[in-house]
Write a structure and sequence with these properties.
It is a single chain. The protein is an alpha/beta fold. It folds into 2 domains: 1-61; 64-234, 3-Layer(aba) Sandwich (Rossmann fold). It is built from 11 helices and 7 strands. The protein has helices at residues 2-58, 73-76, 80-83, 99-104, 106-109, 134-144, 166-182, 190-194, 215-225, 236-239, 243-251; strands at 67-71, 89-93, 117-121, 149-153, 186-188, 195-196, 201-202. The strands form 2 sheets. It has a 5-stranded parallel sheet with strand order 2-1-3-4-5. The protein has a two-stranded antiparallel sheet with strand order 6-7. β3, α6 (134-144) and β4 (149-153) form a beta-alpha-beta unit. The longest helix has 57 residues, at 2-58. The chain starts with a helix and ends with a helix.
Length: 252
Amino acid sequence: MQNKKDWIAVVAVILILAIIGVLFLWYFPSLEKKQEEALLKEAYEKLYAERIASYEAENPSLVDVDAVFLGDSLTEGYDLSTHFPQLKTVNRGIGGDTTFGLENRLKVSLYDLNPRAVILLIGANNLDTMFHNYQAVLEGIAEHLPNARVVILSLLPTAGAFADRNEQIAFNNVKIQALAKLYGFTYVDAFSALLDCGKDELHADCTTDGAHLTPLGYQILTELLTPLLSDLPKLPAESETTPATETESTHE
């Protein structure tokens, strides 16, 4: 009888130790992962703040801007000087950004530059929540830059490991198009232009990893945008002519 009790006690100890071991293996890697995520978040926020500070520093030197491109890494990776050499462009894309981050930085990223045109591509990093404030972003642009030509790019298709997002992206694009129309902005269907219809994914030649673009992908975007960035509207300050100037012109 005693031996049986001892055996039960040993089994119980082994089970307890096994449970402790499982908890140890689960808890500490989880804790380590959380700490790593916290460090990455802190590093990103620091880099983000530095980027905003750099915008503030360079804005006074940026005058007569033709077009500002706003967005996340898809915009940041756009080599604007190569694709639009005829225009004075400013790239204000920040990798990893969301509609919320963009809304908070619109003044320093856009309004202070008073460009003739705005090209917007944002939402890929917060598909589920982008419409919590997407309209607020458009409303802000309409209010602060009433004379600018505003071009809204659809969200782009994805491929590979990201392809399961395409259904929601297509659904969100319907909303984006409706909001662009509401504010009188130009909507560009880049989704269809970059889609491999046979696979219902971003064309393989247009992507580096299923989510970001190759030079060919950017070339396709450029072909869509170039006609919209010709003959840009003059800003009020550019088109004003003083009465004295008009009188002098008449007598020449």
